[in-house]
Amino acid sequence: MADGGQIGEEVSTSGDITQSYASLAEAQTYFNNRLDSDDWDDASESDKTKSLVQATKSIDRLNYLGSKTSSTQDRQFPRYDDSETPQDIKDATCEEAIMLVGGATISLEREASKMRAQTFGAVKTVFDTGMASLHLSAGLVSSVALDILHPYLRPPGHVDVIKI
Predict the structure, then answer these.
(1) Which is deepest, 8, 38, 115, 134, by most CB within 10 Å?
(2) Can you tell me the distance from the alpha carbon of 106 to that of 141, in angstroms, rounded to the nearest whole number?
């Protein structure tokens, strides 16, 4: 890789080279130490790989503090003078990937967030649907991933002005 270890793995799918912040081995180690990882454990290796790549693409769409280590690198990380992707970014990639491999999509999650009330027997729960979930607004299906990424993100509405 031209940028020296910035991405966890290169995966060839249908002749295209795509990249993920976390390798399959790193993701497997992450999920070996996490509760409720059945969706990951039950997925095929191909689906795991695809979910990691898709998670990386979603994470790369966010607006981060600072600048990339190299102006020629494809991905958002590493940043500043780092030579490797921070573990938090790999963890967030895994959290987004498990939601994807479990069948979550932005449109399904947005539709589910519109539910106003749910009844189980004599218990009725009413939901406030006035505000979209922050993770969905950011383009992620995992709220946990967004929580992990939060310290790396610019404040909403932040714009850098560059004098030319």
Answers:
(1) 8
(2) 6
* Tens digit of each residue's pLDDT (9 = 90 or more) over 60-80: 999 999 999 998 999 999 998
User: Checking phi first, is residue 67 left (phi over 0); if not, alpha (psi -120 to 50) or beta?
Assistant: beta
Cα 106 to Cα 24, 100, 134, distances in angstroms: 23, 9, 12
Contact at 8 Å (CB) between 62 and 145?
no
Question: 75 is written with which tokens?
Answer: 């991905």
Exposure string of 30-46, with b = 16+ CB inside 10 Å and e = fewer, is bbeeeeebebbeebeee
For the chain, how are helix, strand and coil distributed in percent, rounded to 5? 40, 15, 45
CB 53 within 8 A of CB 96: no
The residue ranges of every structural domain in the chain are 9-152
pTM for this entry: 0.76
Two structure tokens written together for 130: 């006035």
Could you tell me the two tokens for 90? 């790999």
Residues 6+ apart with CB under 8 A from 118: 124, 125, 127
Residue 155 pLDDT class (50, 70, 90 cuts) = confident
Q: Are 116 and 57 in contact (CB under 8 A)?
A: no
Q: Averaged over 76-88, what is the pLDDT?
A: 93
